[in-house]
Design brief:
alpha+beta; Peroxisomal Thiolase, Chain A, domain 1; OB fold (Dihydrolipoamide Acetyltransferase, E2P); 17 strands; 30% helix
């Protein structure tokens, strides 16, 4: 197959880790990201290669993904007021346009496709992508009382695509003390458990099986943040070291954001790759698709994501491949249900011989904020370049199984334009209405139990006789509610719900 001059190819990738302990270099996120960029460019072995770069796309940091009033809490040592520009300048790319990405775990895959589209249109010949977090060093120095200075006001300009997190905060859930992802994902997780017909103990054991292969990869990955990775036999077992962080999740099962990690990618036109003599390193984005799920509380079935499933199917279709043709996967792993949903979309399970992660995943490799999937893509690129794999699929997601971006990376291009916008995703399933005020009996759809200063807090989603979804919350006292929700199987049972204030409800008891 003849390769067109403007076909985009990934020619280099790099990853950097700055572990805690005596070897910690105290690098801030700007320095970490710039180091990854320099390493990726240097690996090409082309003198003055920086002069060919037209644009650098920088993934959004955690601190720039929250309202301004919260920033000082997340960045006690300061931050750059133009992070993308700071990274570009630090990487000796002062002449390059710096673009700051929207937030979300899907962004690295999304912006890799944007970079490829920019090159395919002829608007650039070479684009660098990167991102970094240094939350581990920041927290360590907060504990020690030592100070750092990571503030910066760089010379030059940059463009900012905005946070893009309008759907991240769900007011109706927050009114019932369900606020952060670690509160919200159990609602999805329990619904997935119920759809598989598994009791709570059996499901937790299954989560351990799903995540064990990721831990094994992290154990030997030189770019993993954590030197101690739990054994397969430990992941699904409650212990002092592996405490519950929210039913059904144990500490070892969820993303760890206290990391110091960065990654970078270099994308260029095939013509430039030939001119620079690096065409033998070319890796093709052979298939790509992205889709956004309807708002969380509007979804008819919380156990699944039609947008995720469409994205995986469409990326494979555009690559001209089937799931059976893929040699390895890097499936997004912020919470186990994200992995399970992707595995179901691909029709694979824990007995599949192929890797479901090339990094070790967010719980074991590390979860550097919005930039995790840059590491997945970097690992895919280097594994294809080395000949270890021919076709690798990277799945990325953001929000509450909300935003999905999937890429297939291959040694050879496909016959279909992988970046085609035709046949976009249409919202799957019917929308369900939320009851703003309800009194009466309703059937438990899913639930979460979390610890608060006053005790154990229960929040439920239930369906009333009108088919509306109702949110309710209560402290769990000893008695029938405790027996049902802590030890029993509440999904499918009926409870009495009463209003407890404006647009809020509480669980009165078992119906």
């Amino acid at each position: 197959m003849q390769i067109e001059d403007n076909m985009p190819v990934l020619v280099a990738a790099s990853q950097v880790v700055d572990r805690l302990g005596p070897q910690n270099r105290r690098l801030g996120p700007v320095a970490l990201a710039a180091e990854a960029v320099k390493e990726a460019l240097s690996s090409l072995g082309v003198p003055d290669v920086e002069q060919h770069v037209d644009q650098v796309m920088v993934m959004r940091t955690f601190v720039d993904s929250v309202p301004d009033r919260i920033k000082p809490l997340l960045a006690p040592f300061g931050f750059s007021d133009q992070f993308a520009r700071s990274v570009a300048n630090k990487a000796n790319l002062e002449h390059v346009h710096a673009r700051y990405a929207t937030a979300g775990g899907q962004s690295p895959q999304q912006y890799t496709a944007k970079a490829c589209s920019t090159i395919a249109r002829g608007d650039a010949q070479m684009v660098v992508l990167c991102g970094a977090e240094a939350i581990g060093t920041m927290r360590a120095h907060q504990r020690s009382g030592e100070t750092l200075d990571w503030s910066a006001s760089p010379v030059g300009e940059s463009s900012d695509d905005g946070m893009g997190l309008e759907d991240q905060f769900v007011p109706a859930l927050a009114a019932h003390k369900v606020i952060a992802p670690i509160d919200i994902y159990p609602l999805i997780e329990h619904r997935k458990r119920h759809s598989r017909g598994l009791a709570r103990a059996d499901y937790r054991s299954y989560l351990g099986q799903v995540l064990a292969p990721l831990a094994e990869v992290a154990r030997v990955n030189p770019f993993a943040m954590f030197e101690r990775v739990p054994l397969a036999s430990e992941i699904g077992v409650l212990s002092d070291r592996n405490r519950a962080v929210g039913d059904p999740h144990l500490k070892s099962m969820v993303a760890k954001d206290g990391v110091n990690q960065s990654a970078a990618l270099v994308v260029m036109s095939y013509a430039l790759a030939v001119e620079l003599g690096v065409q033998e390193s070319a890796v093709f984005l052979r298939g790509f698709a992205e889709a956004t799920e309807r708002a969380l509380l509007e979804r008819e079935d919380l156990s699944t994501s039609p947008a995720l499933r469409w994205s995986y199917a469409k990326a494979l279709e555009r690559a001209g491949l089937e799931a059976a043709d893929i040699d390895a996967f890097d499936l997004y792993s912020c919470f186990p249900v994200a992995v399970i949903e992707a595995m179901e979309a691909l029709d694979i399970d824990v007995d599949d011989h192929r890797p479901t992660s090339l990094t070790g995943g967010l719980p074991f490799f590390g979860g550097p904020g919005n930039n995790y999937s840059m590491h997945g893509i970097a690992s895919a690129v280097t594994s294809v370049q080395s000949g270890r794999y021919s076709d690798v699929l990277v799945g990325a997601l953001g929000g509450h199984l909300s935003k999905h971006a999937v890429g297939v990376y291959s040694r050879s291009p496909g016959a279909i334009d992988p970046l085609s916008d035709e046949l976009g995703f249409k919202e799957g399933g019917n929308s369900i209405a939320l009851a703003s005020e309800f009194s009466g009996a309703a059937v438990i759809e899913t639930f979460i139990i979390k610890s608060i200063p006053e005790g154990q807090w229960l929040a439920v989603l239930a369906i009333n006789s009108a088919g509306q979804r109702v949110i309710a919350g209560s402290l769990i006292e000893q008695g029938d509610l405790a027996d049902l929700f802590i030890e029993g199987e509440p999904i499918g049972e009926r409870v009495f719900i009463e209003p407890s204030g404006e647009n809020t409800h509480h669980v009165v008891g078992i119906a």
